[in-house]
Amino acid sequence: MTRRARELEMLLLTMFAAVPLYFTYAIAGTALILFHAFTGLMALRVLLGRTPELIPASIMRWVAIAYVPFYIIDWMISRSAIAASTHLVLFIAAYQPIESVHRQNHAQRLLTTALIFIASIATSTHITIIPFIVVFAYFVFRQLMHVSHEETARSIGHEYGEAPAGRAAGFYLAGAIVIGTLLFPLLPRLRNPLVRGLSGPLAQSATALSETINFNDRRAAQGDATVVARVWMSDEMRARFTPLRLRGMIYDHYENGEWKQSLRGLRQVPQRGPQFSTGTAGGHEGPAVVEMRPQRGKVFLPPNTYLLQGPQTLYEGPARETYYTYDDGPLRFEVRMSTETAPLRPSRPRAQSGYPISPAVETLARTIVGNEQDPARKAALIEQYMIRNFRYVPNDQAAEPITLERFLLFERGGHCEYFAAGMVALLNATGVQARIAGGFYGGQINPLTGYYAVRREDAHAWTEVWTGTRWMTFDGTPPTQRPGATQENPLRLYAAALSDSLTFFWDRYVLTFGLGDQISLFEDIATWSGETIATLTDRLRSGSRTIPMGNAAMVLGAIAGAVAMVLLFRRRRRRLFDVIASYLAAQGIAVGPAMTMEEALRQLPPEAAEELAPLIVMYEQETFGATPDRRRARTLKRKLAELRT
Amino acid sequence: MSAFEFNGVVRFTKVGTVYLIATVILAISAINTGNNALYIGVALMLGSLLLSGMASKGGLKHLHVDVGAMGEVWAGRAGRGTLHVRNASRLWNIRDVVLTSDVLAEPVLIPLVGRRQTVTVEVSFLFRKRGRAHVSAVDSYTRYPFGFFLKKRRLPVTSEVVVFPQLLGGSASTERFRSTSGEQTSANRAGTSSELHSFRDYARGDSLRHVHWKKSASLGRWIMKQTDAESAKAVHVMVDPCLPKHGSPDDFEEMIAAAATFVWHASRDGFDVTLSLPRATFRARDGEAASPLFRALALVEPAYEPVHQVVDRHTVLFTLGGQHDAKSA
Question: How many beta-carbon contacts under 8 Å exist across A and B?
Answer without folding.
Answer: 161
